[in-house]
Specification:
The relative contact order is 0.10. The chain is of the alpha+beta class and 321 residues long. The strands form 4 sheets. Strands 6-5-4-3-7-8 form a 6-stranded antiparallel sheet. Helix content is 40%, strand content 25%.
Amino acid sequence: MSEHFSRSVKRGIYIAGSLMVLFLAAYLLIPATVDFFWGEQIIERHVADVLGAAETADEAAFKILSWEDLNFEDPYSTWEGKWYNKYSIYHMNGSYKWFIRSNQLSWLITSKLGNCGERAYYFVQMMEEAGYPARVVCVVEDHCWAEYQSGGFWIAVDPSQAEYVTPENYVLGRNWSRIEARYLNGSMEDVTYRYLNTAELFITSEKMGGQVNIYSTVLSSSGSPRYASPSLVTTRKLEEPFTLRLGYVPTYQLVYKRDYGPISFHKRFSDIKLPTNISLVQGELINLKNLRFNTLWIVWFSLFSIFLFAVIRRIMAEKRK
């Protein structure tokens, strides 16, 4: 009985380990594999089909936005709270689809699945393929859109809504803290000033040293289970006093990771009244969402280690026979 049970346990471990390896390999390698073997052909053919004979940046942008609006599906819009949603599986248009997240252009063309971030990266990469400068713009409060250059100016578009936007109107009614432009070469630029009326936050300490994290509490106070903890706006080493320009958020949370004495701070407002509250927290703030993510990976790694140990043990046993 015990021997039969032992074999059943081993069989279960092999099956669980195999499924885990296949799941992780598929999630991590499918986009890279598609791009490695067929990426160049997919992109070249797609650019020709979508852009055609576009002669200006504005014409190219319009065609790209139109294609996205007609072809992309938004997985998060079909969230049902089902168990399979946790594994990025969504029920869309009568069928189940696995949303493998990747910003690689060839994969976005192939899968036609994406939320605001994927659609922004698709737009920017397509504009770059057409020879026009473009960049992804993201806000800490979980949203991305895009900008492209035309006539020496940056033009803002929201690919997730397939529309052109103006910075001053786009931010109306939104509680956003810091906006950042991301270029495909990896560089970044703070473009908060283009969209928001900002206030200056001056931070200093009686003794220099340690690290200061500033969080936005907009999403964590929304009640959504997707946002269990405040969103990190920026991290700075407190080597000298510094000033940050931040947008309107009802409450920022400042976390000082080393206790070198009380931090003093004051706000220097711009020409608008900005009733932002700064709450000071001594010590490290635990990011619950990241903690759950890390715990999940620990479980997967443990199962994989057990599976690998069982396989090695069986191989060694076979050699001894």
